[in-house]
Amino acid sequence: MRLLVHLALRSLLRSRLAFGLLVAAVTAGVCFQIPNAANLAGYTEELLRQGMERMTGHLQVVARDGKAVEGVAAMLARLERQGGLRAVVPRLIHGGVAFKGSEHQPVRIQGIDPGAEERATGFCRRLGRGRCMRAEAGAAPEAVLGASLAARLKVGVGDRVKVLIPYQELGEVEHSSAYYRVSGVLEGGGAFTTDADLFLALPLLRRVVGAEDAASIVSIYLHDHAEAGRRAAELRPLLPRLEVKPWWEVSQFVASAIAGNRAIYGVSMAMVVAAVMIPVSALLFILVLHERRQIAILGALGFSRPALFGIYMWKAALVGLIGVGLGSALGYGLCRYFMLRPIFEFSGFVVRPALNLEVFAVPSLALFTVTLLSGLVPALRAARCEPAVGLRED
Q: How many angstroms separate the CA atoms of 253 and 242, rounded?
């Protein structure tokens, strides 16, 4: 085995230009695909973080008739007895209008439990300015605004906004009009809907609209988003009168964007494989044609066909190993560059490379395998060379 490797390396070093081109082809493929895979994985992670973690949760419980979920306290107690749930968060959603001077905006008002939201999504840590609203009884009415809503209303922390909230009482439409002090402004979230929302403490909004012990949705957070389908099926018998939806049914945009991301990754991998396989296989085959005399001499010296096949497969393996090693190092350098200078950044939605084992291992193993396959036909051609014919032709 050592002799075969030595002969393969000597053969490559005799044709240094071809050797350099072979290594360059594999290096370029790995160097391109690793940061490409890392950026696509980072985009998926940001979609999940902004569009699912911060908005819908891994599972969402809603009423089948589209009305509010009643008896929330008892339902939360039942859910908290189930194992494997990271957090259960009730949210009451209502429409309204926010006013600041001459500016006004129709808004989606979310009544939230700041403590539960903090445990589930790090809500209070996501504030770009200010602090969370106070939820204790007797506290002054406060609101947290999404980044784009605060910008449109031109308000900051400490300002007071007037909020008009319509509600129904005894069949008649009434409205509440009150001033709320802005205690905090959320950081941007890539123009997802929470960027334009106004957040009040859940008990306060319940009192205003007369919806005690009710919620529009109950979001459930798991330890692993991939478990959402299985856990939804397990919880449906526990909540027979309600609808339990996994995140991909609630946020179809996020699900479609992630599916599109996977398709882009598959297409780019196929293109890189073709871009590496064609020149590598062509150069290795040309090397076999140019080395017919050396192959014939080895055959005349007693090297068997499997040994000749092994020498040229080792040539492909050496090219693959060196190319993958160099490409991985350069790919890591590019990933570090994109960490400092993201390829996309908008309103708090930032795509940075996801540095994990998969984004390095999959392109590296795929292109190493492609390099070996590219050497298969040239190696077979070398193994079938007849020593007498090769020496006579030379």
A: 23
DSSP class of residue 53 equals: I
d(CA 287, CA 385): 13
Q: Say how far apart CA 90 and CA 132 lie, in whole Å.
A: 17
Amino acid at 56: T
HSE value, Cβ hemisphere, 13 Å, CA-based, for 315? 33
pLDDT of residue 56: 83
Q: Name 173's bridge partners.
A: 168
Integer distance in angstroms from the first to the last C-alpha of the chain? 29
CA distance 128 to 108: 20
**Looking at the whole model, is its pTM more than 0.85?**
no
Rounded-to-integer distance, Cα 391 and Cα 44, Å = 59
With H, G, I as helix, E, B as strand and everything else as coil, classify residue 170. coil
Residue 22 and residue 280 in contact, taking contact as beta carbons nearer than 8 Å: yes
Residues of the chain with pLDDT under 50: 390
CA 95 to chain centre: 32
